[in-house]
Task: inverse folding
């Protein structure tokens, strides 16, 4: 509650806010539990890092395909129904996977379909549940409520892989996914009991969403700060966050870790993000947010190269954990200033449209995952990890050249 100061009591008393925080945290933890458990199962069955990348990419693919339209849908449909329905769908999907695993007939392609369904639900997170958080807190406390929600997201993204590794190690894939199903059903019941009223429902128009994207793009290309924001967002998701699909094969095939310790490896980056996020929330960083955005992304890319070098050495686990936690610091700095730039550089009339563009750029994440998987055969696991970092730094160099050219105009 250090982040909230004197606003803590008012936030805790806001109708529906605490249940929304709890539901978001639990659902996010189960998402990352499923990601790790699915990767472990796919690697065990196929022994292929590329197949792991395909299954992992399926979960984030809906962000690329539908992310731009989810804001329009959440404005035209009751957001509480979207959140409750999404939790029920996630529970049904996870429960089906768990039962198929329990009777011994589960195949990786079935996990891929379940991942697509889960990813479609995840694409509603920002425009539906996160927006309900801000509305429940009220205009005066909305930013603080979202800040706490973001901290909980970092914490549960750290807890999810740990729970996934532990559940997989002791209960197998069936136990991990059935746990996810039960918790998602519980969260659906929790959110369903919230009193929520959505005052204004807009007419649903997907063509209008496309027009908003076009308008947002036309606005963004005239402002070099927004061009750089979108460029860094693409690079960070394409070359940075896509490294996560390599962690399970690295943990199993290179470091020979147990499922729980692979979860520890996957939790290192979000743990660093959590600590950095708390620090930045208490003591905002001085200077232009664009520099911090670029600096955070550059740090993450550099960490990937360093981890690839360290990973070839004996007793590499502890140094790699430290490096990935440092990469999490860069990730948090990048994420916090991404939103800040949209809020400070965009007038209110264009903010939703620019955020739609940012969502589309985030959708490059599954493309990066598939590319990372494809690099495993020619370069090896550590070579693929290094290639992601090098590609990211090369892209940042191009953007730096663009920024210099704009300053000299």
Result:
């Amino acid at each position: 509650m250090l982040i909230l100061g004197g606003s803590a009591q008012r936030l805790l008393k806001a109708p529906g806010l605490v249940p929304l925080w709890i539901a978001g945290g639990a659902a996010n933890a189960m998402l990352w539990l499923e990601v790790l458990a699915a990767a472990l199962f796919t690697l065990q069955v196929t022994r292929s890092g590329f197949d792991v990348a395909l299954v992992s990419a399926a979960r984030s693919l809906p962000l690329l395909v539908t992310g731009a339209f989810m804001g329009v849908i959440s404005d035209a449909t009751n957001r509480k129904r979207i959140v409750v329905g999404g939790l029920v769908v996630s529970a049904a999907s996870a429960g089906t996977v768990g039962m198929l695993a329990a009777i011994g007939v589960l195949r990786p392609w079935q996990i891929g379909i379940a991942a697509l369904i889960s990813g479609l639900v995840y694409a509603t997170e920002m425009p539906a549940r996160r927006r309900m958080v801000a509305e429940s807190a009220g205009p005066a406390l909305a930013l603080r409520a979202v800040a706490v929600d973001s901290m909980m997201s970092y914490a549960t993204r750290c807890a999810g892989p740990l729970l996934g590794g532990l559940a997989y190690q002791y209960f197998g894939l069936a136990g991990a996914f059935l746990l996810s199903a039960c918790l998602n059903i519980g969260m659906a019941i929790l959110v369903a009991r919230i009193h929520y009223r959505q005052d204004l429902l807009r007419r649903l128009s997907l063509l209008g969403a496309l027009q908003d994207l076009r308008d947002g793009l036309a606005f963004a290309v005239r402002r070099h700060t927004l061009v750089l924001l979108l460029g860094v967002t693409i690079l960070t998701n394409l070359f940075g966050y896509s490294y996560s699909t390599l962690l399970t094969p690295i943990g199993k095939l290179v470091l020979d870790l147990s499922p729980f310790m692979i979860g520890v490896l996957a939790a290192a980056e979000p743990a660093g993000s959590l600590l950095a996020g708390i620090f930045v929330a208490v003591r905002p960083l001085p200077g232009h947010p664009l520099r911090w955005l670029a600096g955070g992304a550059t740090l993450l890319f550099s960490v990937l190269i360093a981890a690839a070098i360290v990973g070839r050495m004996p007793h590499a686990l502890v140094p790699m954990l430290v490096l990935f936690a440092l990469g999490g610091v860069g990730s948090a700095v990048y994420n916090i200033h991404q939103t800040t730039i949209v809020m400070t550089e965009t007038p209110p009339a264009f903010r939703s449209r620019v955020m739609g563009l940012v969502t589309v750029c985030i959708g490059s994440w599954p493309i990066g995952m598939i590319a990372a998987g494809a690099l495993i055969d020619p370069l090896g696991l550590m070579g693929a990890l290094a290639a992601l970092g090098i590609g990211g730094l090369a892209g940042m160099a191009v953007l730096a050249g663009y920024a210099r050219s704009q300053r000299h105009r």
Notes: The domain at 208-409 is CATH 1.20.1250.20 (Growth Hormone; Chain: A;). Residues 223 and 251 are 43 Å apart (CA to CA).
